[in-house]
Design a protein that fits this description.
The structure holds 2 protein chains of 2 kinds.
Chain A lengths: L1 H33 L5 H5 L2 E2 L4 E2 L2 H32 L5 H14 L3 H15 L6 H26 L2 H9 L4 H29 L3 H6 L17 H10 L5 H33 L3
Chain B lengths: L3 H11 L8 E2 L13 E12 L2 E12 L3 E5 L6 H8 L9 E9 L2 E2 L7 H7 E4 L10 H11 L5 H14 L3 H4 L12 H13 L5 E5 L7 H14 L4 E5 L3 H7 L2 E8 L2 E9 H6 L4 H7 L5
Parallel strand pairs in B: 1-11, 4-9, 4-10, 7-8, 8-9
Antiparallel strand pairs in B: 2-3, 2-5, 5-6, 10-11
Helix pairs in contact in B: 4-7, 5-7, 7-8
The chains are: A mainly alpha, B alpha/beta.
Chain lengths: ~280, ~290
């Protein structure tokens, strides 16, 4: 019996160490290879010699713009859908079931398929061409299923007691949502948003087909722009001697994700502290 | 056990309508707290969840200013009965409610009933305190703002009024902006009652308000309920027969017959406990069954 416990404990520890080890090795490798490139100049200059030298400023700006467009589109849509699913649709509504099923399927669709869809629909049919707008809208499509499902879970997880209390006091569902339920689920919703952003920032295939390859500084949302992930792909696959720059770019990308997480958590805590007392 | 001729003579005597589904308790000549004046009239109420009948043919009157206790074992529809009085059954999917309920003479199931106004007039307190995750002040402000009160002075005045009424003002007046969930169980339940009182209801429905509390908090809440009677009509579901004896003016005894909840006996509290007309009631209040 003791031996079984020992094996089980050993297995738990081993799994944790392996996973931690992989991440540490990944980060160390990146840091070791890429830290040499990081400098203020790297972050603010335009790329030269196809990116082997110079900086990645246009890529940072493009990535932020694409993410911005995607988030602005996806957050209201996703929260609206999730509220409909969780609060307004009857328990046995067939439309709710179809919708949920479709969302779960979409969550698993490979990004290149979204890229082709984005190319055909946003770039072609809507006439936006290769642009940050097309890229942002395609990413919004990819982020929707994850965000809708996590927001719906967050709302369903809130106890029914408050809904009953609200009904007994004659408080409208909208008021209850905006004053109690949504603020209370804000941490869970922002966790879902961060997950969705994580998926979005990683998407190379979708962005190549929709926001393009051009490494100029974009001057408007209609301009084509190269995202950081696409730049890493280009430097490592197409440009000889671009490895060092690729590592540097990867480090910057990870740094950006860390900043987004930290600021999202801080904003969520600050906003919560003002509105909700747990 | 129903004796219809006995009932017919009783109803002629006391002059209030009687349905054949329950035994009328002895109406003493001196009324308990007020002239019996029906505030809510329930007539042949039937409630079903889907195809499962929960309540059948419940008819009684709730008298103004008095405390009516609903007693009976778990599962015989007392909470459902309570929920139908302020149409909280609308929230339950597949709930079908048939019959008439009149509050102050108005049928609450009529097409043009303002449900919000009904719920302002008929407040409800639940078994587990369900305060919102907000500060004490905001918990009381939310229903006030929702129903149109805008001025800060009015709101603050009302907050102080209701907190004094439930005996919480001195305890929480310096920490109104702290979380309501940090209060003790008894304080939370009293705050729930205060929250319901902010809308100036005339009727309070309480679903086992003390059952989730320790004996001392329970006693405090009970004393407060007794203080509120007279000014408010109170309907309280309770499993605690001693509590019903202590505070109620009228009692309604529910029981499961053929898997459906039915009203067995209704009348003034003391006569119902001391000399119940129905053998089921007698068995229940003496503790030999249920």
């Amino acid at each position: 019996m003791r031996f079984n416990y020992f094996i089980f404990n050993a297995f738990l520890w081993l799994s944790t160490i392996i996973v931690l080890g992989i991440f540490t090795w990944l980060l160390w490798d990146l840091a070791h290879q890429g830290i040499g490139k990081i400098s203020w100049g790297f972050l603010t200059q335009l790329p030269q010699r196809s990116g082997r030298e110079g900086g990645i400023a246009p890529m940072i700006v493009s990535t932020l713009l694409i993410l911005g467009v995607a988030i602005l589109l996806v957050v209201p849509l996703a929260i609206g859908c999730a509220i409909w699913l969780a609060e307004y649709s009857a328990k046995n509504n067939p439309w709710a079931k179809y919708f949920t099923f479709a969302l779960d399927m979409l969550a698993g669709v490979p990004s290149i398929v979204f890229g082709l869809f984005g190319y055909a629909f946003f770039c072609g049919f809507l006439g936006l061409g290769f642009s940050i707008l097309s890229g942002g809208m395609t990413l919004a499509c990819m982020m929707l299923p994850i965000l809708i499902r996590t927001t719906e879970s967050a709302l369903l997880a809130v106890t029914d007691d408050w809904r009953r209390a609200g009904a007994a006091l004659g408080i409208s569902r909208l008021s209850l949502l905006t004053k109690v339920l949504l603020p209370y689920s804000a941490p869970a919703i922002s966790a879902g948003l961060l997950l969705a952003i994580g998926r979005a920032t990683a998407e190379t295939a979708a962005l190549i087909f929709t926001s393009g390859y051009v490494d100029r500084m974009p001057s408007s949302l209609n301009d084509s722009g190269r995202a950081l992930a696409v730049h890493i792909y280009d430097l490592s696959m197409n440009v000889l001697g671009g490895d060092k720059a690729a590592y540097g770019t990867a480090l910057v990308l990870i740094g950006m994700i860390v900043c987004i997480h930290v600021s999202a958590n801080m904003l969520s805590e600050y906003w919560m502290a003002k509105r909700i007392k747990r | 056990m129903v004796n219809s001729s006995h009932l017919a003579s009783r109803s002629a005597e006391s002059g209030h309508s009687v349905e054949s589904s329950y035994t009328v308790g002895d109406m003493a000549l001196s009324s308990p707290c007020c002239v019996p004046n029906p505030h809510i009239r329930i007539h042949e109420l039937c409630v079903a969840y889907g195809d499962h009948n929960v309540l059948e043919n419940v008819s009684l009157d709730i008298y103004k200013g008095c405390i009516t206790a609903l007693i009976g074992p778990s599962g015989c529809g007392k909470s459902t009965f309570l929920a139908s009085l302020n149409r909280l059954t609308d929230m339950i999917p597949n709930a079908q409610v048939m019959g008439d309920i009149e509050v102050n003479g108005d049928n609450i199931f009529a097409k043009n009933t303002d449900v919000n106004q009904l719920r302002r007039d008929v407040g409800m307190i639940f078994q587990k305190p369900n305060l919102f995750p907000l500060s004490i002040r905001k918990n009381l402000e939310l229903p006030l703002r929702e129903h149109g009160m805008r001025k800060k002075e009015d709101i603050n005045r009302r907050v102080e009024e209701v907190l004094s009424e439930v005996g919480l003002w001195d305890e929480v007046k310096d920490r109104l902006d702290n979380s309501a969930l940090a209060l003790s169980g008894g304080q939370q339940q009293r705050l729930c009652i205060a929250r319901a009182l902010t809308l100036e209801p005339s009727i309070l429905l309480m679903d086992e308000p003390c059952s989730a509390l320790d004996p001392i908090s329970s006693a405090t809440v009970e004393k407060m309920i007794k203080r509120l009677s007279g000014r408010y009509t109170i309907v309280i579901v309770t499993h605690n027969l001693a509590q019903a004896r202590r505070i109620a003016n009228y009692a309604a005894f529910f029981w499961m017959k053929e898997k459906v909840g039915k009203l067995i006996e209704f009348g003034q509290c003391h006569p119902l406990f001391e000399s119940p007309k129905d053998p089921l009631t007698a068995a229940y209040v003496s503790g030999t069954s249920g």
